[in-house]
């Protein structure tokens, strides 16, 4: 086997077969990319920031009526930030609800993504926490401001390249 064929075989083996939700999105002309299922074998879908709102709206209409969790993490200094969404279908007679997870990869220098607050109200404080800790701007959020750190705090404490201050000013405690 030539070196070119080996590289081609390796690339094809790295492709992930789309799951049920990713296939449904593709059939309905929503741009997405299937990722490896997570440790619980839950389908993961990569979504571009500009397609998050249309895809989130479609998934809500498809039955994913609950935002179980929204959060963010840092892939490392100089790398991308990720905003993730764990969606679940809740119904009266379901014992094993269907779940899917969306991931939006954002550039570190300008991390902007539309807010899903207007689809799932539970995103309110979760998006604020991601903003406060990582500096991800959720465009269209009704009250995007710090929720854990003081309003005048400089920087994003959970970014892996964050340098903590040498001292913390003791404010009027009494």
Q: Could you outline the blueprint of secondary structure elements for this entry?
A:
Blueprint: H1 3-14, H2 20-27, E1 33-35, E2 43-46, H3 52-62, E3 66-74, E4 81-88, E5 99-106, E6 112-114, H4 123-134, E7 137-139
Parallel strand pairs: 2-5, 6-7
Antiparallel strand pairs: 1-2, 3-4, 4-5
> What's the name of the CATH homologous superfamily?
NADH:ubiquinone oxidoreductase Nqo5 subunit
**In which range does the helix fraction lie?**
10-25%
Q: Give the DSSP E fraction (strand runs of 2 or more residues).
A: 15-25%
CATH class: Alpha Beta
What's the mean pLDDT score?
Answer: 89
Number of domains: 1
Order of helices and strands: HHEEHEEEEHE
* CATH architectural label: 2-Layer Sandwich
Structural class: alpha/beta
C-alpha end-to-end distance = 76 Å
Annotation field: number of helices: 4
Shape: globular
What are the low-pLDDT stretches, counting only 5+ consecutive residues below 50? none
Please name the CATH topology.
Beta Polymerase, domain 2
Rounded to an integer in angstroms, the radius of gyration calculated over CA atoms is: 19 Å
Note the quaternary state here. Answer: single chain
